[in-house]
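Slide 14.
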Amino acid sequence: MKITKLLGLLFLGGILFTSCSDDPTPSLPKGDYEDGILISGEGTTAVSGSVSFVSNDLSIVENTIYKKVNNAEFGEYVQSIAFDDDRAYIVADNQNTVTVVDRYTFDKAGTITTGLSTPRYMTVVGNKGYVTNWGATDNDNDDFVAIVDLNSLVVEEKVEVALGPERIIAKDGKLYVSHLGAFGSNNKVVVIDIATKSVVKEITVKDNPDELYLDSLGNLVVLSAGKAAWTGDETIAAISFINTASNEVVSELVFNEGEHPSQMVLEGNDIYYNLGNSIYKTDVNATTLPASELFTTDSGYLYGLGVRNNEVFVLDANFSGNSKLDIYDLSAKTKKDTKEVALGASKIYFN
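Slide 15: predicted structure.
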């Protein structure tokens, strides 16, 4: 072989080797339930709560994934799911249990079974989990936030709070807790200092606050449904904006009398909420609520709402069979697909 040809082959081989070496290592799949949608279903007293998976392209639907992976059930009722980088925490309130799984494979990693009393929602800050608890239904004075060591899965301490703590979110060393009022009513968002493990502020909003989100300015956005007419003490609903530096309500979007939204999500600076089966859209800078709906769904029981990119996800809950996940195109404002998901489906999570 001529030396020039040999040198040429060596040079080409060096280029190929360098090119291959410079290629980033392709990431391996983390599990069957990566890059999809998780749907939590409450179940009933007779049928365990469960979690469904829907792939992002909507081609795959798999129900009762925890049972399929672990041959076990959550029990009644699955209320919510929280996440950290690698794990999912499934809260079953009537079981006083949080089940811990790998968020992508759903292999069981452990359970939190003591120190909880009707747990509702959870958030994770570092190696601690913070779980809201209603306590006993016949006691209005035993509500608390449980502090969980996520390494040992043990409840270390409790922070006593007002009646009916519900959603919980963390920002700048503080926990913000909406107080729906359990089986009664409340109108507080409680602020807990993480370092001192104590309540530092109670912020008054409209009755029955539930959903909590942080907007791009760091303001807390709170949906309060108000008391419905059937209570005999109807009150108005509102979306409140709380400055998290001063912990004061700085503005409110107030609903008309008789209007009681039950769902709200924040996508960017856009706020989506429902009134009955209709979906509305406003934004964090609005001074008034929209006069007309974005579109109306055909749900029998609209029980969950999610928004991602150009799609709206609506849960039409059924407590005697599979619920429906309806997917709407935001541009066309029309339904593009429907999937059968968990019994009593109530929450949507993008995994």
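Speaker note: The mean pLDDT is 93.
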